[in-house]
Each structure stands twice: as C-alpha cells, then as structure tokens.
Amino acid sequence: MRERVQKLISRAGLASRRTAERWIEEGRVQINGVTAQLGAQADPKTDHVVVNGKQLKPVTEKLTVLLNKPRGYVTTMKDPQGRKKVTDLITDIPQRLFPIGRLDYNTEGLLLLTNDGDLSQGLSHPRHHVEKIYLVKARGVLTAEMRKRLEQGVELDDGITAPAKVKNYRVTGSGCWFELSIHEGRNRQVRRMCEALDLTVVRLKRIRLAMLDLSGVPSGRYRVLTPDEIRLLRKSI
Ligand code: URA
Questions:
Q1: Which of 32, 63, 72, 167 has its CA 20 to 30 A from that of 79?
Q2: Nearest protein CA to atom 7 of ligand 1, as residue
Q3: What's the rounded Cα separation, in Å, for the pair 37 and 32?
C-alpha cells in the first residue's frame, strides 16, 4: 500500500512526522534513487526508500498492548461519522496496531491491540473458548429466572448462546451490578443477551480477558504486554 513517506518514516520509529517532513525538504530522503519531494508516496514492500543514507526497513517487531477503552470510542480503524477511534489513544507506538475483536462505542474496558495476525486470529476464534468477563450495570433486578436463562443459554436471532456464568450479583439504589463471563464473541452479545431478558444495560465494561485484567491501567491508558503474558495468551488458544 502506498503511503506518504513521512508516515512510513515515523511508523518505523525514526522520527516524528514533522521531523520526517523536514528531512524530505532537506533532500535527505530518496525513493528508488530519486530525491523525494514533500507529499511523495511510497510502498514499503516494493519501493526502495533511503533515509539519511540508510534503507528504511518496514517494522516487523510484534507488539500487543492492553488498552482500558473509555466510552465514546469506536474500535474500527475508520469511522464514516468521524468519531474518536481507539487507535487515537495509542500515541507513542510506531507500529500500526489493530484491535483484537471489538467493543461497542459505549462499552468500556479491556481491549487488546496488536500487529500480530496469528495472535489476533487465535484469540478471536470461537473454537478457542477464551474467557471474557464483563461488568454489567442494569436497570431493575436480575431475577433468579433471568439468571438461569443466562446460565443455560439465551435464544438470540443468530442462535442460542453458550452457557454464561453470573458472579458477584449486587443490588444498588437504581438497579443492579453483576459480572457475566462468556467465551463467545458475537456482535453486541452481552447487550443482546440482556435485551432478550428485558434487562436494560446502562453500563458495560470488559474487566477480564483470559488471564489479563485492568490492574494498573486507568481509563484511556494502555501498557505493552510482556513476553510472559504473550506466551500465556498463546497457551490459552
Ligand atoms: N457485548 C456487548 O454487547 N458489547 C460489547 O462491546 C462487548 C460484548
């Protein structure tokens, strides 16, 4: 894919985009042997880009981050409505990271982003049964009958859900809180399961994925997963 050269340079971690633009203006960047002009584009796979005398190598280091997603962000890479994207929150990592799975615009919590396609596919595959735990705040109460339906499987328009687990149920003034553990990853699954029970979700937060939780990561912030965590994640798929 052709992209502006300053973008390729900054993604490779060599400089900020602004500095890369200055380098281009100063004639320190060549594409296929020709000095690049500002605005020039190149494809890192097929073009030979030289920066300050050295060949630009595409970033290949695999990296996975755990983001505590705030409400009001989309997990898609582009949004026709121009809403804020989770990737806007990843500010100091040159690699292009993609969300693993999705969280709704108004869902908060644990989201992994990676440039490791195998890990992404493995964690998203329903056959691999990766546990995800959601903290649900709902209006009204969760009756014993509703709880049983969640735990036995709820009929949705795309079929019955696998049994979920309900934990830490508590009632507050205006409604209730509980944790719902599922291992499927259907679109809007938790909200649809609750809707099927006539339970209105007012807040939804993913608090756990496999062995990972949000400890030490405030809303809107992220951290890079350690090699040990990646190893454990790979074991879970
Ligand atoms: N289930 C939902 O309904 N929404 C999410 O964002 C994640 C799981």
A1: 63
A2: 103
A3: 13
